[in-house]
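Bench log, entry 3. Co-assembly request; chain sequences pasted below exactly as received.
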Amino acid sequence: MNRRNFFSGAATAVAAASVSRVALAALPEPAMQSSADTAPPLHPPTGRPYNPVVTLNGWTAPWRMNAGVKEFHLVAEPVVREVAPGFMVNMWGYNGQSPGPTIEVVEGDRVRIFVTNRLPEHSTIHWHGQRLPNGMDGVGGLNQPAIPPGKTFVYEFVARRPGTFMYHPHADEMVQMAMGMMGLWITHPKASHPQIATVQRDYAFLLNAFDVEPGSMTPKVNTMLDHNIWCWNSRVFPAISPLVARQGERVRIRVGNLTMTNHPIHIHGHEFEVTGTDGGPVPKSARWPEVTTDVAVGQMRQIELIADEPGDWALHCHKSHHTMGAMGHDVPTMIGVDHRGLVGKIQKIVPDYMVMGERGMADMGAMEMPLPDNTFPMMTGTGPYGPLEMGGMFTTFKVRAGLAAGDYRDPGDYTQPPGTQAYEWQGAPASTPRPARTTAPGTAPGAASARKPAASGHQH
Ligand SMILES: [Cu+2]
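Structure output for the full assembly:
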């Protein structure tokens, strides 16, 4: 239990400002969030103490205590989410953002959540992973009538077991989740727990995906698998905050998957153990070291590691298509195809014809192509040594010696100590000749082309 910042002035001010005296007599005033930045952890101003999580590009909902019950107010509503700077998407979310605020409580807390529906259609909230009375489970039609537009329903139950959970609608679920309705729920242990370690940093995010046609602003809600915006908490690299740690700290990272496919989450430079799932803590005897763990659809994974290697380490989904921005997938492979001479002829007929991928696709990372308005590039993000050629489900784990406890600010680029970075060979060049070309002329894939997205609206 960390009480260091229990009476932190900033956290107290946030909670106090969000609960006016008028509201105490009625519904709790809903706290709203206008920013997509990562909010500092909310140290609990009331109730039992705990070491709070940091929600990547998100925030924790403040609450009020009412006769020993923790009261929250979620407002389901249309929001505009900044997925990356300059890239805004019409979503449905809670309290001003998608995902909604993280709910943090303590094992044994009685929790009352007011849910106001400001959507144009009915909704519910299902509390994924919770032990609760059947009538509080939130499946519209099965456990309760759905919440009509304009109405407020009340959910109330005891947070019975500690762990990593999430919430989402269970009414017109396919549409409402495709529009971004979801949030995290963390139940902290009430006392020291044999299977739950004390950590110095505790990060949390949800995996979510959208299908936004380049140049448009509203997700296509009927897409099953072919999404083009692969997000952590409705953000894409390089707009996802880095996870910062002081060298030697124990770090927990909680990940939940509300997309339609699995995501192998991979960290560089360190090993971790899966210490818990939405089913609860994993017994220590059942843990093993990993550097990648697959998070399947509807699963949550809680990983822990010791941040003992300084540097800027990649942390990403290992499906390479999920670290890319908006792109078309029906583009033929052009590696090894010589287009010289052909382009000019084609451009007489198709003026916006362009060639891509003759030498691989790395050129795309540096290329500034004309894109439709409100589209983020397929690969983007620049590091100290050039373009990263990544977008989507990618961020960095920044480990530094000498950070202050609880300092989550981006420490900037890592400086490689002299003699510890890959370098160019300055000796004689390799003498092995290139193998002779065996492909006969004319057998390469023919007439493969990619048109600028302004024309086709889809491919780059
Ligand atoms: Cu993925």
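Residues 207 and 257 are 5 Å apart (CA to CA). Confidence is low (pLDDT under 50) at residues 1-24, 328-332, 442-460.
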